[in-house]
Amino acid sequence: MFEPFTLKDIAKALGLSTSTVSRALRDTHEISPETKKLVLDYAQKINYRPNPIALSLKERRSKSIGVSLSEVANQYFAQVVNGIESIAYDRGYHVIITQTHEFYEREKVNIQHLASRSVDGLLVSLSAETTDTSYLQNLHQRGLPMVFFDRVTDQINTHQIIANNEKGSFEATEYLINQGCRRIAHLTSSDHLSISVERLNGYKQALAKHNLPFNEAYIKYCEHGGMFQQETEVAIKELMNLKEKPDGIFVASDRLSIGALAVFKELKIKVPQEMVIAGFCNSDVLDLMCPTLTSVRQPAFEMGQIATDMLLNLIESKYPVHDFEKKILDTSLWVRNS
Amino acid sequence: MFEPFTLKDIAKALGLSTSTVSRALRDTHEISPETKKLVLDYAQKINYRPNPIALSLKERRSKSIGVSLSEVANQYFAQVVNGIESIAYDRGYHVIITQTHEFYEREKVNIQHLASRSVDGLLVSLSAETTDTSYLQNLHQRGLPMVFFDRVTDQINTHQIIANNEKGSFEATEYLINQGCRRIAHLTSSDHLSISVERLNGYKQALAKHNLPFNEAYIKYCEHGGMFQQETEVAIKELMNLKEKPDGIFVASDRLSIGALAVFKELKIKVPQEMVIAGFCNSDVLDLMCPTLTSVRQPAFEMGQIATDMLLNLIESKYPVHDFEKKILDTSLWVRNS
DNA sequence: AATTATTGTGCAATCGTTCCCGGCACAACC
DNA sequence: GGTTGTGCCGGGAACGATTGCACAATAATT
């Protein structure tokens, strides 16, 4: 059995009380230098570490934060996680990552598990399936600090951090227009996600600016964000079966971009000759391998950092916070059409 | 403040003792049906959840396992994590993922943090930098269950699960030979990783079988597994500056494959006309985008599942386990040379 | 020399839960 | 009627760490 050393072990070994040992290890000025040295040396020798669980119980906080996101295999989220860890780590917090794989049920179970006292706060990016956030509202009402990133909700009054999805989408769509595309489709995730709404808006604005008609038939939603390749396949095939086939497509995420490229390949549709693609994408690999995909890059690492900083400030705030912020970070357009 | 309900709250509300409430919620046969119903109903009403931290302290286990790997942005590891979660989740365990980014110091800090009583066991894939495993040996000696996967060490006597790296490498190298390559280079991670040794062996065996000479100059190690693109760049450029340039290259990992492709692109070396590539790769994207990369696929998801199953069995075993297993799973060769 | 500070240390309560032990009723037995 | 049994419940210790309070011994003060 794995039994780490405790204060009691040290106390017994040195013939002291646990309180003396405890104080020797921190208070320092209440304890005689000799005793202090004795304790510190011994603790060093046996490599003593305070039991974080006992501390959590006592302090009523766990010094850990929970993260809920769709999947770490997604480059965007992997980069966000790195940002989260970089800050949490520095400030002495553990990070517990949970994946929803875009399922509402999974998200709910994960978050409730995290919340039942094992984390001090939550970083949440909603799943594609989620429409009911009442369980989150419940936790928030009861005082669990949370910050939303990427896929946010206005039903809960707290900090939010997102990319400038409208502007990013506008630029990507305008790029397609400038490339000569006139029938631009939009492949996106489920329609109740905040990012989908915002990205659709940017797309519409670009069309409007250039006097192009908005065609509902060109908008294709994937309820599970392309988690099932079949979703993407059906969507693309429907687009390609239209009388007026699109000549460009604005894709709303990493996963959908990958999925769409796969379908175009299968259909032997040449990119970018027959179809120009632009989309949100943070994948280095895709970027490297596909020189024809103009991409909207989100500052993922930075988003993770800022979200974590906001959350930890909420957690460590001595007074209840009522003033919440919605932070919007600019994207950048990486034009690739060689 | 976020203050979940406790047993005491229920006891006070119903005029009972905490012990009675506790028993009503589990023991069940020592408590009268009426009291039981009363308690259960009330607990349901306020959505009571036992405090996992208090439980952990009492039970001296946390029902969570720690994972140490290089980075989740790597598709192989992302798939392993999914496998780990699928099993841990079913058996009621939390999963805490930590990333080393191939740094020894980071690995050590992460694992010691996990070990200081907050996890019941460890799943470890060593970082590229790690040579000294004494801190792990220390934990293992003191009884912390651990299972190694992918990058293992024989210095600690416990379960291991790996892919059949030798066979996979042999097949990939032989594939290159069959494609007509005669000067086959090998780009790999740091030389002290178990996978590097095994993969080099498979490579050598294939050369030997086909009576090709082994040339030390064709072997290039990247001490940080290609975490810094510069490593890969230097390695490839050195290879291409040799008098007898290689005509094929066997690459040992996802990240190195991506890195290498980027360098070949930069150098305007055509793949596969001037350079045939084969390598270990679990990236769907790379696979999709690069139709010329023949890849050795590892059963990553399954590896995660098996490792977790082994670990949980160790953790839950009533008797000390001395009989350890080294499980080797077959890889599969995905030939792509269109 | 007696009183008051000062210093160093131990006791005990606390966090939320479980579980051993013991106690109170009431019924059944000799 | 006294003993034993049984069903139901409360008291209290334990898990490991921190911390207010008490108290001893020594030093400083009048």
TrEMBL record, chains A, B:
Q: Kindly list the GO molecular function terms attached to this UniProt entry.
A: DNA-binding transcription factor activity; transcription cis-regulatory region binding
PANTHER family in the cross-refs: HTH-TYPE TRANSCRIPTIONAL REGULATOR GALS, LACI-RELATED TRANSCRIPTIONAL REPRESSOR
Give the record's keywords alphabetically: DNA-binding, Transcription, Transcription regulation
Under Pfam families, the record lists:
LacI, Peripla_BP_3
Protein origin, superkingdom: Bacteria
**What is the protein name for this chain?**
LacI family transcriptional regulator
Recorded hits in InterPro entries, A to Z, give: HTH_CRP, HTH_LacI, LacI/GalR-like_sensor, Lambda_DNA-bd_dom_sf, Peripla_BP_I
Question: Which SMART domains does this one have?
Answer: HTH_LACI (SM00354)
Q: Which SUPFAM superfamilies match?
A: lambda repressor-like DNA-binding domains, Periplasmic binding protein-like I
Per UniProt, residues of the HTH crp-type domain are 1-44
Q: Which PROSITE patterns match?
A: HTH_CRP_2, HTH_LACI_2
User: What range(s) does the HTH lacI-type domain occupy?
Assistant: 5-59
Please tell me whether the keyword Heme is annotated for this protein: no
